[in-house]
Design goal:
Helices cover 86% and strands 0% of the residues. By secondary structure, it is an all-alpha fold. The longest helix has 134 residues, at 2-135. The protein is rod-shaped, with a radius of gyration of 62 Å.
Amino acid sequence: MTGSESIDEREAALIQREAAQAERESIADQRDRVAEDRDNIADQREAASDARDLRLDEKEKRLTGLELILDERARALRESVPDVVRRQHEAIDRSRNVLLRAEQRLVRAEASLERSRAAIQRDEAEIQREVAASSEPGPGDEPRGDRAAGESPES
């Protein structure tokens, strides 16, 4: 019986080795599937990262373009500001000249008005002197006035 026991033991040992080998192969297959899954996830991440990088690169290009446009606008504004200020100063100077001429015309008009008033006063004074001279009775004249109506010469 030692011969048959040794065959049975050998078969049992062989079966155990085969079972252990099958389990090792199963574990290796599972490890390969997990590694494949991990590689697939890494590939997906890399693809997503590449797509995100492309979007970010495009966005950066647009922002760079906008920055250049804004720089150009700012430069144009800086260049136009002195021109605007110069034109405003010119307009102020023209307005001052117009104001000065208007003041001179006003002074001349006031002087003319004063001369006209003086002439009117002289004319009125002369008229009053003539009226007074004509209303004074002469040496043989009667005082003027309507005595029949009851008016006195002073009225």
